[in-house]
Specification:
With 225 residues, the chain is of the alpha/beta class. The protein has two domains: 53 residues, RecR Domain 1 (Helicase, Ruva Protein, domain 3); 126 residues, Dna Topoisomerase Vi A Subunit, Chain: A, domain 2. It is built from eight helices and six strands. A hairpin with a 6-residue loop joins β1 and β2. α2 packs across α3. The longest helix is centred in the first third of the chain and has 17 residues. It is globular and about 65 Å long.
């Protein structure tokens, strides 16, 4: 028999989980709160934990606890670290005069894996989004401005002067808006503000590139000399 138009398929009843012990139900509920994990996936993960030996299950539990207990944010750049200052900020071989601004720690990691940048970073912990109520005070914008303004003097006397801030924000409407705001604020401090080049990828085709990519490619054109 056909389903009536507009009626949704019935969801699994909560009674289906009633046969599980309370501890299993609690585990499934917590796992289902993870991003990208639905109730079915949470159930499979819970049973994987149940089938694992005690050492493997406890290793997972200990790893989660250790992350929450020991990992925080660098007091300088807000990258993830297990101390006061991350290894990048603490590295004397890095170029302390250049700071690359990114949205999230995962963006920093992606850039580090290229091995092409040897300066420092600053993690905003998000991007400006007025529609979502995210303003400068919700990010680490103030810390970035203070960091540039106080470089070479102040509490960290003798620290290298920041001569360039590179904006490495994602090429989205919010990312571009955040970049414009930062460029305006940092420009008042007399520091050079640049952004990562954007345009046609190597091996790409013009006919498949969107307008934004083509515009960036034209504006970021380079001399063949």
């Amino acid at each position: 028999m056909k389903h009536q138009s507009g009626r949704s398929h019935p969801r699994p009843s909560r009674q289906a989980n009633a046969a599980y012990p309370q501890a299993v139900r609690d585990l499934i509920e917590q796992l289902s709160k993870l991003p990208g994990i639905g109730s079915r996936s949470a159930e499979r993960l819970a049973f994987h934990v149940l089938k694992s030996d005690m050492d493997s299950a406890m290793a997972l539990s200990d790893a989660i606890a250790l992350v929450k207990q020991t990992v925080g944010h660098c007091r300088v750049c807000f990258n993830l670290c297990d101390g006061e200052v991350c290894s990048i900020c603490d590295d004397p071989q890095r170029d302390h005069g250049r700071v690359l601004v990114v949205e999230q720690p995962k963006d920093l990691i992606a850039l580090e894996q290229t091995g092409m940048y040897r300066g420092l970073y600053h993690v905003l912990m998000g991007r400006l989004s007025p529609l979502d109520g995210v303003g400068p005070s919700d990010l680490t914008v103030g810390a970035l401005v203070d960091r540039v303004r106080g470089s070479g003097s102040g509490s960290d006397s003798g620290s290298p002067v920041v001569v360039e801030v590179v904006l490495g924000l994602n090429p989205t409407v919010e990312g571009d808006g955040t970049a414009l705001y930062l460029a305006s604020e940092l420009g008042k401090l007399g520091v050079t503000v640049s952004r990562l080049a954007r345009g046609l990828p190597s091996g790409g085709s013009l006919e498949y590139a969107n307008k934004a990519v083509l515009a960036d490619a034209i504006l970021g054109r380079q001399s063949m000399d």
